[in-house]
Amino acid sequence: MSVRVRQHVNPLSRPYRQAIEPPEWTAVYANLGYPLHLDIGCGRGRFLSAMARQAPQWNFLGLEIREPLVIEANQGRDRDELTNLHYLFCNANFSLETILDSYPEGKLQRVTIQFPDPWFKKRHQKRRVVQPELVAQIAEYLATGGEVFLQSDVEEVAVEMRDRFYEHPAFRLKTPQWLPENPLAVPTEREVSTRDRGDPVYRSLFVRLQSAIRSIDGTI
To answer: For 30-77, how does the pLDDT look when each residue is reduced to its tens digit (9 = 90+)?
Structure first.
């Protein structure tokens, strides 16, 4: 049975502002030579769990700020005996650099940020996960040619995420239009429910450049 947790957690409150101590990665993954897919704000982890089963030659790491969900997700991973999947309880905006700095260099190949908390009130928008500092950290650790996939059912949030990655010279937007389909093999639960209601999903895909040079329109 799934645990019940608060829908919203203030990421700027004191308990969530400390960087975590990274795990010993050799004890987490069976093969550290696999490329790494990082999902920021993984929720209950069901998207990553499905991805890990479909792509056994990738490692998958989910970051989530609600600890009960992380405990539940890791218990499910253990039941399924998935040795290419792990979840960490942390605030990505305070722990991402520490986590990635401890991971084998060049293995981060894909980052997903999907349906993050929109924090609609203007005074709360500083709590949104995609801040310029987070974008800069992803740029530092994502391998050349690696991808960042973003999606939201809130257009304002999708635009803000897209623009913050677009403004960083390390990233190139694959297409100036919203992607009509999810390029990944697995949809999130939120994506499925949004689609079933007939509501739009706003998606964008970025590629990590080898240098900071990109075309005038910012696309490939």
So the answer is: 999 999 999 999 999 999 999 999 999 999 999 999 999 999 999 999
Pairing of strands 59-64, 85-89: parallel
Query: Residue 217 pLDDT > 60, yes or no?
Result: no
> Left (φ > 0), alpha (ψ -120 to 50) or beta: where does 207 sit?
beta
CA-to-CA separations, 151 to 103, 156, 168, 203, 215, in angstroms, rounded: 26, 11, 18, 4, 24
| Cα distances (angstroms) measured from residue 193 to each of 132, 187, 198, 201, 213 | 30, 10, 9, 11, 39
Contact 219, 172 (CB under 8 A): yes
pLDDT digits 0-9 by tens, 161-171? 999 999 999 99
CATH superfamily of 27-208: Vaccinia Virus protein VP39 (3.40.50.150)
Give tens-digit pLDDT for 81-92.
999 999 999 999
Distance CA 85, CA 102 (A): 17
Q: Which residues are catalytic?
A: 117
Specify the pTM.
Answer: 0.90
pLDDT digits (tens, 9 = 90+) for 4-39: 555 667 665 666 668 899 999 999 999 999 999 999
Q: 219 Cβ partners below 8 Å, 6+ apart?
A: 172, 173, 174, 175, 176
The tokens describing 82, both together, are 């998935």
